[in-house]
Design brief:
Layout lengths: L5 E8 L2 H13 L7 E6 L8 E2 L13 E4 L16 E5 L3 E6 L1 H13 L7 H7 L5 H12 L3 E8 H11 L5 E8 L10 H10 L4
Antiparallel strand pairs: 1-7, 1-8, 2-6, 2-7, 3-4, 4-5, 5-6
Helix pairs in contact: 3-4, 5-6
Protein name: DUF1269 domain-containing protein
Keywords: Membrane, Transmembrane, Transmembrane helix
InterPro entries: Low_temp-induced_all0457 (IPR052948)
Length: about 200
């Protein structure tokens, strides 16, 4: 049975107000908001972070800077989100986000020192179970100033989130991925649900 497996889904929004509306709708629908993350590129120069790759007496220009920022950095969404943080990827830019996935990305980039490597964000996204080709798409969309909303949960929970987000005209892309697999792959939830109905004891 696949319905109990963990899934990770990503929606792309061009406008902040659409991302804000999507977040609010998920919250009002009763979706566990702790399973929702928002990631966007910093548009200004007013965010500075703590370089987690630097240790006392150790100088390095590699890695990602990560730190807390004020809610105003994320504009309208900043008023809705708790724990907004920034992570700077040398050569790529400064990104802001809130939620478990945003924190995981920031920690991965800083801890692994891969931020200085071209495509570091792609690698970090791929490490979350996103296929390389899709990770590149999301990285590019972030670089263009778009917003990612990431939701995690069982197939049933992701279907609930999907039914909410599909009503948002600002949703431009939607992908669901197998968060439990060692081999990143995109999944089709509708096909999985139908398969479970026909083979409930798989």
């Amino acid at each position: 049975m696949t319905l109990g497996k963990r899934r990770r889904a990503i929606g792309v929004f061009t406008r902040e107000r659409d991302a804000q509306y999507a977040y609010e709708e998920l919250k009002q629908s009763g979706f566990p908001i702790e399973a929702v993350s928002v990631i966007a590129k910093q548009s200004g120069d007013n965010a500075t972070g703590t370089d987690l790759t630097r240790k006392p007496g150790h100088e390095t220009d590699k890695g990602a800077a990560v730190g807390a920022v004020t809610g105003t950095t994320l504009g309208l969404l900043g008023g809705l989100l708790a724990g907004v943080a920034t992570f700077a990827i040398p050569g790529i830019g400064i990104f802001i986000g809130a939620g478990t996935i945003a924190t995981t990305l920031a920690t991965t980039l800083a801890g692994g020192g891969i931020g200085a490597i071209s495509g570091g964000l792609v690698g970090a996204l791929a490490g979350l179970g996103i296929p390389d080709d899709r990770a590149k798409v999301y990285s590019d969309r972030l670089s263009q100033g778009d917003y990612l909303i990431v939701v995690e949960g069982t197939a049933d929970e992701i279907l609930r989130a999907q039914s909410v987000l599909f009503n948002n005209p600002g949703l431009e892309e939607w992908g669901v991925y197998d968060a439990d697999s060692d081999r990143p792959r995109q999944v089709n939830l509708e096909q999985e649900v139908q398969a479970d109905l026909h083979h409930p004891h798989r």
